[in-house]
Amino acid sequence: MNAVARTFSTEGDYKVADISLADWGRKELDIAEHEMPGLMSIRKQYAATTPLKGVRVTGSLHMTIQTAVLIETLKDIGADVRWASCNIFSTQDHAAAAIAATGTPVFAWKGETLEEYWDCTLDALTFTLADGTLTGPELVVDDGGDVTLLIHKGYELEQGDDSWVNSASGSHEEQVIKNLLKRVASERPGYWTRVVKDWKGVSEETTTGVHRLYQLAEKGQLLVPAINVNDSVTKSKFDNLYGCRESLADGLKRALDVMLAGKVAVVCGYGDVGKGSAASLRAYGARVIVTEIDPICALQAAMEGFEVTTVEDTLGRADIYVTTTGNKDIITLAHMQAMKDQAIVCNIGHFDNEIQVDALYASGAVKTNIKPQVDKFTFANGNSIFLLAEGRLVNLGCATGHPSFVMSNSFSNQTLAQIDLWANKDAYEAKVYILPKKLDEEVARLHLEKIGVKLTRLTTEQADYLGVSTDGPYKPEHYRY
Amino acid sequence: MNAVARTFSTEGDYKVADISLADWGRKELDIAEHEMPGLMSIRKQYAATTPLKGVRVTGSLHMTIQTAVLIETLKDIGADVRWASCNIFSTQDHAAAAIAATGTPVFAWKGETLEEYWDCTLDALTFTLADGTLTGPELVVDDGGDVTLLIHKGYELEQGDDSWVNSASGSHEEQVIKNLLKRVASERPGYWTRVVKDWKGVSEETTTGVHRLYQLAEKGQLLVPAINVNDSVTKSKFDNLYGCRESLADGLKRALDVMLAGKVAVVCGYGDVGKGSAASLRAYGARVIVTEIDPICALQAAMEGFEVTTVEDTLGRADIYVTTTGNKDIITLAHMQAMKDQAIVCNIGHFDNEIQVDALYASGAVKTNIKPQVDKFTFANGNSIFLLAEGRLVNLGCATGHPSFVMSNSFSNQTLAQIDLWANKDAYEAKVYILPKKLDEEVARLHLEKIGVKLTRLTTEQADYLGVSTDGPYKPEHYRY
Amino acid sequence: MNAVARTFSTEGDYKVADISLADWGRKELDIAEHEMPGLMSIRKQYAATTPLKGVRVTGSLHMTIQTAVLIETLKDIGADVRWASCNIFSTQDHAAAAIAATGTPVFAWKGETLEEYWDCTLDALTFTLADGTLTGPELVVDDGGDVTLLIHKGYELEQGDDSWVNSASGSHEEQVIKNLLKRVASERPGYWTRVVKDWKGVSEETTTGVHRLYQLAEKGQLLVPAINVNDSVTKSKFDNLYGCRESLADGLKRALDVMLAGKVAVVCGYGDVGKGSAASLRAYGARVIVTEIDPICALQAAMEGFEVTTVEDTLGRADIYVTTTGNKDIITLAHMQAMKDQAIVCNIGHFDNEIQVDALYASGAVKTNIKPQVDKFTFANGNSIFLLAEGRLVNLGCATGHPSFVMSNSFSNQTLAQIDLWANKDAYEAKVYILPKKLDEEVARLHLEKIGVKLTRLTTEQADYLGVSTDGPYKPEHYRY
Amino acid sequence: MNAVARTFSTEGDYKVADISLADWGRKELDIAEHEMPGLMSIRKQYAATTPLKGVRVTGSLHMTIQTAVLIETLKDIGADVRWASCNIFSTQDHAAAAIAATGTPVFAWKGETLEEYWDCTLDALTFTLADGTLTGPELVVDDGGDVTLLIHKGYELEQGDDSWVNSASGSHEEQVIKNLLKRVASERPGYWTRVVKDWKGVSEETTTGVHRLYQLAEKGQLLVPAINVNDSVTKSKFDNLYGCRESLADGLKRALDVMLAGKVAVVCGYGDVGKGSAASLRAYGARVIVTEIDPICALQAAMEGFEVTTVEDTLGRADIYVTTTGNKDIITLAHMQAMKDQAIVCNIGHFDNEIQVDALYASGAVKTNIKPQVDKFTFANGNSIFLLAEGRLVNLGCATGHPSFVMSNSFSNQTLAQIDLWANKDAYEAKVYILPKKLDEEVARLHLEKIGVKLTRLTTEQADYLGVSTDGPYKPEHYRY
Question: Does D392 lie in the same domain as D253?
Fold first, then answer.
């Protein structure tokens, strides 16, 4: 459990923690395939046509067992894939090893530094043509938008706008990115322009990344067509909700083995992630308090019997804090200093800035590492708090993320989005698209048999009465599920 | 409990069961006002400006205590109101009496015949000008679309198209409507044309009614602007879901006092109404089976741990059947004949055609009335089933519908829609509109204080980070809650 | 809904509200029989032997549809039955009528005065021998111990101890009983001595009544053998828990149609009744706070995620108060005066003294009757509270009590206890007995088939390994289920 | 993840996996102390009097972090402690190291062979007097009864009855014990007689161990007074129920990261462990089926909405099987062969014989080790199942057992039992005792403050009304909670 001098396995075109874990990873991949019927069905359906034949695809997405099944699905339908993780703690090293062992370039390990993280992202971006020219992906699978950010910012610099790379940085990570871009600028002149020339699209997975895409599109700066995978019903209403309902407690348990029954837990935010988190904690017998800024979500929480109040009102009586907002500064340093002794603080939203981690580090609180991803901070008043996964995603940092079955839904959407982007590369504009409801329903359908669901089928008379087709789609676009 | 010779109170411009119930109704209205903070707040806000001053409003909506608070809110902001119920069983007679006693014309009682029902609708539609001319409403509050239907069909006939009124009818009710239109045609020539001339808009409450409006709009036949109130989040995600979670069991209990724990209950449909119904039955310890045609909703049901299969698969083992679909022929006569002895069949969706009630009546099954709205049908094989509220809405037929607090959300949307329609009567086209998200959030906000919710407020930095205003709206249009 | 001049049906040896309700009652009895498999099975099993043949049985137990099935079961196995209710509000008049119509003497109606109540109890006690001599029951079915109290106190008086009947009374009801005993003393000299001579036993249903029996037994004053039916697992862990889980919300809904979601509800006491009540309210989306005196029950409540605090701590923030304790002065007048406006106060424990009802009446608060069993009290500060069923059992006063299926468990225990008492009338001493676990298991077994349960059967090897018989009993006596 | 050549840390009077883990263990011990208020309070209360001063105590109980806090509590109140685990997989190596590092002899590591396990048990039993004489404990803390078994069987052999050690063994483990006893007989003649001479009592933790004690007592073979800690309410109704509600899912998740939502899970047995297991799985969205032999428990399961049927009926449709019975042969080889492909089989009851593990090993199924404690068995028909923790306790084998807070309840009972046994060593007979209810309530009370519970206090009038003391105990002995 002590820090170990780090060694890597880098014999081929990959960089992973330990290639000897490949066998174990493969066994777990075999198991996961049984839990991911959507991806397996897509493999079968497109085995003959290989719609991504020879297409260069870069993925930046938590390098877990489930992602490994996604990678192999993309390869099965023809893609030429390179991969990095999108979070410094989320890689499962045996999964990365199993992928590396098959010859797919993967650059990811659990516990990267920020410098290593962005280097890995660049490695995953960098394809080498037969003539040795360095180029980039034709399609990107993104989660949080880091690849998209890097290409856009690199391209901006090559277009002559160096204002951003030379501006003051709001965080250490921001500076790391700027340093990287400057290095690329000197080492690979014209590289980003070449990359952008071939780039045909990106499919994005998360609320936060999608939000960035819409902002780029609104400003007219988006370089390629994008598919918002997050807002497929079978993504946001499943991965975000049911995924977190399973993986939040898993992260808490593996981190601290804490009894949840009888505890007071504060869930900040009652979107899909917050709904899943609150449901899980309550089911364990915790008393859950919700914080919200949106009156509609607040009213939903109240209708489910949750107390809804501010973080300030909970200080001194709550034992566990979970941020789920996608916003920043939700748990401030002042909050942490006023918490009950031994309170647990973690984030399952998106970035680590939901918690004021930097301020905590700078506060003079004494840090004691309990075990990887579990730190105790002791304040001057003698109280301590536990910070999990350094404020990054607790389910991926302290456990293994969402289980395979729910990820099969998300990744089926990702795969269909990739196929769609390539098929329509000449038709689509540089805008943000959503997958048609028909495909959304198809993704759901692919997962029903595995869990024994028997669908009812509309008669023609019933379909006519509703004014829909017997084969769907069954609902108007604005339907909320 | 026997049929009573029916007498009515009709001393003024109203028709109710018993005007002497007005005092009791008023006491319950007083209680309900405390539970309907949204409506009370709107009264206060618009007390001075009375935005509906003198506007003729016809309402067709379950004449309950909650609706009485809506009616008095519309009157408080200036409207000239006439009212009918939108369901033959849903009137609470003391609520109707209380409204009638204040001089507001209301035409509704519990247990109308279909002929009486449509006559009441016509009465609620018929305003008399100072000069004695009969005219219609300027605005309509609709639930299920019956007033809208009547005006459209009446107008169609006066335009010279008598194909529909002379066509064969698929149901007894259809024929009742046609007869009424023919009578009006002879008694009030040109009436519907006059009505349409002044009619400025309709706000509609239910999934089914909204669906009809979209169909009219698509065909270019919609005569006025319409506001789809159903798809306000604070309507469909509250009334449909949390309302049914409270009122389904209430209907079952008042009808049959049945133990729900240990029973197998089949919920047909897993939309918002189905979700609320299934949650309620499970909470009582029933084992709930869901039927669905939509793979996404089916997967949601499965993720919540419900068995999902077809009605056919449940016959002989299920004790309770609840339809929630808005579709027809969900429970067929053949289903009912094959059910377990003493199975209970009811509908909380929309129309009574979710269950093949007509076929049941015609089947030769022996009908025994247990008490109002509770009938036993005994089949030739000796088995019986119980049909509640003759297949109409069980929560309104056998209990008192949704509780006040949730209806305050729906009716706040209705009221805001009425104000909006009138304010924009010159701007809006004959299309279907949805209330802006900002108003949706406002409706929620009006209900938070009553239940002690304390909202968190975004800082400017946080709002900028998200790219929203600190005052909302907080979510993109496609957000599903 | 106004007070009606009361008339009764008293044509035969009975006194009920309206004998013409008998047909309706019979229809509901037919339905209930399907839901009470335990009683129906006992009827079948003992049809030939009629173990209570000719035995005089007095019952004092809520005169509901379910009790009617119990009465007819006792009659089927031979008993000569007379019945009263054990609560002034709990009678279902159509049930009483149905029983009266069959010639069984029953003295009960909904809304008795206390004087009427105790007169009914005396009527139910009074059997007339062929020679015209007045005598009493040989067996008593008791719920709350009122018949047992009356006989013991009457006998005490005839034994020459008049200290109690002449003492000051702590409540109006106490004085009513004393007056009755004095009247009997003058009208029927020696009556109670004759009653006691023939009395062979009592089976008692509730926690409170059982508690009284143990107290009598400890003091050596118990006159007959008693069976504690309450502590059969299939009674206290079913009726008290699952019965209340179904009937509390039913009472609240029928009384006030109130939305439970989002409300703060305080459940006083976390025994079986409190557990059922808290579970039900939470399932509706209420936020439940528990009060407890017992640290073990308090810890259980906390493990289920309930806030546990004192009544005082909840004043001003809670909307609903439910007492479940079997103790007195749980909700005091001072509590009620400090409650949030429009708070609802009710009792599902045992006696109305859980709430300081007498003090409320005497407090000067203005009482407004909303409808039967629903009263509003307005205090000087302008706030009001709602008191349901005058502080008596809300599920029986405002709804119809527990559903049939769970009562079939309780009443199967009652019936088996009656059979056992009679069979062992010469063997048993004047002590409190519990039914053997084997019978408890048998009661459960009789209810499994109806709800489709398929039991697993121990192999001989497994039974030997556990050291039990393959036929049970399966658990040690101290097992808590 | 591969098998490693095993090395041990054995520098002192201990045998643990790696003494260098002591620091990490100590950090987790510090955290656990905050979650174990009962034990910490007992330390404080008895710090001065040290009621176990110099008493030799042997513990045989899962060597986890929580147990480490128990061990240090026993030491704090004076005991001379030696410890072994009671399960080959349940040791947390860092906990064992932390204890060993303080000089307390501990013999335990994760993944012992059966031979190693029983040798460890003997080591924990073996105290050396100042003169070098080997002797045994004066008190035993037992979990499952292995120390008690070993002493009784060893003593039986020394008394001249060698029938058991020479009989045929039903399992490999049985033979291991016999071999050990024979070795001790040859190496330490008269040892067990010396041990028994000083042995004053045992406190036992589990249902199974308690059952064995009652059997010994009934046959008159029990050698010392025993306290049944399992049946303290604050043990069986907390550890068994709420402990499993937290740790079952933890074991499943750490073993296989499987999605629980949508799965069909079979819980065999609906005692406290089964109740906790079923509640947890349902909360995750699994559809839970219960199997039971006891009609009362079966009816409880049905009232909670679970399908209750036989294991046979679930084959082919269930994904997860969990045994909770304390009985044997619950999941047979034939069951496993007929299960759905990729079904998961595990045990959280007591011994591994709940599943026919031996038969599985002998069946010819191909075993693939996925990672420690996770094995896949592939049958001839191509289907596989996953067996967790080799059929031993899945929560301890695949995760870290119950969380600290609930174990603080159990271990407070253990500590109070040890104090009680020693205080009454001259008074108690060789029978099985239960701790008085007063202590049970005290244990609960010690845990309330930590989780913010505020108890209500009885007034004297209320206590008199109930006939109890204001300080408790509050319930009759037969109360079931």
Answer: yes
